[in-house]
Amino acid sequence: MFKTIKQSLLIMCLPLLAFAVNAADFSDGKHYQTIENKKSETPKVTEFFSFYCPHCYQFEPVALSLEASLPEGAEFEKSHVNFLGGASAQVQSNLSYAYIIAKQAGKEKEVAAQIFESIHMKKADLHDIKDVKQLLALNGISEKQFDDSLSSMLVIAQEKQMQDQQELFSKLGALKGVPTFIVNDKYKVNMKEIKSQAELEELVKYLLQK
């Protein structure tokens, strides 16, 4: 069953990577959804994701390409959720901490790639915090550095911010699954209507300017 799901997700992602589009007129309610929320003060794109989500794993190249395409001054923010089934909220938050600590060290992309691969290719569940520490150690983040960072107020606050964000956008009806892309805290991208990577990037640039 997992193989079938994985193949279906790959089929969904391939059009995003393979085709380009011309300029298009985007409409609220179709290509994107306006959220009843205050617009962010600075331009940003937030991707809500989970390392345990196979769809997020397949979408990672899409997210990386989108990040690289953003105009100067726009921030790309990955916010790891802890509400998926199959693992406790604490186990999922451990991976949020790992991502935050890796980002502080400037190694978030390398660590994210290894976490995704460990879970979806090597079938490691990473439920034990020791396994998470070992993975970060492979990227030059020692166990002591991990423990020290884990107890720092900055890391604790950033993980809480991730939880606060997922709770807020869930209550607003904008976050029902992952991956979910939200622009300027105000617009949710409707991925079902997006036909190509180019169209996604064009839509996000359009929403950043609204």
Automatic annotation (TrEMBL):
Disulfide bonds: 53-56
Keyword Signal: yes
Record's subcellular location: Periplasm
Top-level lineage group: Bacteria
Recorded GO CC terms: periplasmic space
Matches recorded under CDD domains: DsbA_DsbA
Stretch forming the signal peptide: 1-23
Domain Thioredoxin: start-end pairs: 10-209
Regions annotated as coiled coil: none
Keyword Disulfide bond part of the UniProt annotation: yes
Principal location class: periplasm
GO molecular function: oxidoreductase activity
Assigned keywords, A-Z: Disulfide bond, Periplasm, Redox-active center, Signal
Family of the protein in this entry: Belongs to the thioredoxin family. DsbA subfamily.
The protein's name in its UniProt record: Thiol:disulfide interchange protein
Biological source species: Pseudoalteromonas byunsanensis
